[in-house]
Amino acid sequence: MASRQQLMEQEPSGQAAEEVGEQAMGPAFVASAASVGLSLYYFFLRGEQRLGTFIGLWPPTILAFASYFNQRKMRQQLETLTQPGTKLKDAFDSMMGNR
Q1: pLDDT band of 82, cuts 50, 70, 90
Q2: Prediction pTM value
Q3: Is the Cβ–Cβ distance between 62 and 35 less than 8 Å?
């Protein structure tokens, strides 16, 4: 295991947590909004209430998948930052978004 001095001396590598979040949620948010619009179109304009309701269930599923993949990326980043040899202060700053 790395000593405290080693943890304080080396720089962490990887993306900032906020960049990971922005990358993962952008397309998911667009897909969710499009799904809501499509759902409203089918439900009210076309009169196909079952299809509109079915499509209306997609946004939570899309956002749940995006959240899952976002958490996976953040976990990988955390594991990278907490490997022996990383600076403890920089690791905390990076994870808390202070960088």
Answers
A1: confident
A2: 0.59
A3: yes
